[in-house]
Sequence to fold (305 residues):
Amino acid sequence: MRNLTDLDKGSEHSHAGSGRVRGRLVEYARLMRLDRPIGIWLLLWPCLWALWISAAGRPDEKVFVIFLIGTFVMRSAGCVINDFADREFDPHVRRTANRPLARQAVSPAEALAVFAVLGLIALALLIPLNRATQVLALVGGVLAVTYPFLKRFFALPQAYLGLAFSWSVPMAFAAQTGELPFVAWVLFCAGVLWTTAYDTIYAMVDREDDLVIGVRSSAILFGRADRFVVGMLQLGTIMLLALAGHLSQLGRWYWLGLAVGAASALHQQKLIRYRDPQDCFRAFLNNNLFGLAVFGGILLDYLFS
Fold:
């Protein structure tokens, strides 16, 4: 009987141990924001625009897979270092109070360890790529790591996020062609303006909390001119994407996709007109449709032209 009891106790300890491991992994997944994939998509769309245009619709399979995995890894790493930087602020913001570091479900040391692992994976992904892409990737890594700390003193961190989120565009051109033509920088600038626009909308959700805790944002900087500035950024994005389409000699499918994107931007303006936080968040999420519409136009144009 004693042996059977010991076996039962051992089984209970084993189950408890596996439960703890699962619990840690769930918290790490939340730390990487895997339960909120919108950020992955928003980071991925400019990358896909650039991969398809740089390769005239036929991106290299190896490059495509590396960039796909790299987008997932870098977005996850960015979320981890962002939460590490904001660990003293997040408990005081309604939207972020339930994050693992804010709840102290994950320690700062654990967060840094997860970030280090993701960083090593990102570095390993660079090995098969050419030297130009590797150098650009290191610059992009610096942008991603430094962004969360700018909110303490930089009044327009959303524009800096635009640089970080759009840096995959010149990387994609370098990986595919080894060159950085003018159209690459046009697409890059479009990505910067687009990211600044949708992250300003996102910042409008937290404006009141950010004012209390002293975090800077474009929503605070622009004040009552926020809708107008967002509209100008959206207009600039569409104009630059139109120029990129012209330079790349894209046809009617692309222009149809861009028109759908423009309609999405107008819908976002309607949603944010009263600056209601829930509607602003819906407008932010709607940018996934914008990115998809532009990429769908590029994809279809190369397929049927």
User: Anything to note?
Assistant: The chain has 14 helices and no strands. The chain has two domains: 1-31, 38-304. The chain has a mean pLDDT of 93. Residues 38-304 form a domain with the Tetracycline Repressor; domain 2 fold (CATH 1.10.357.140).
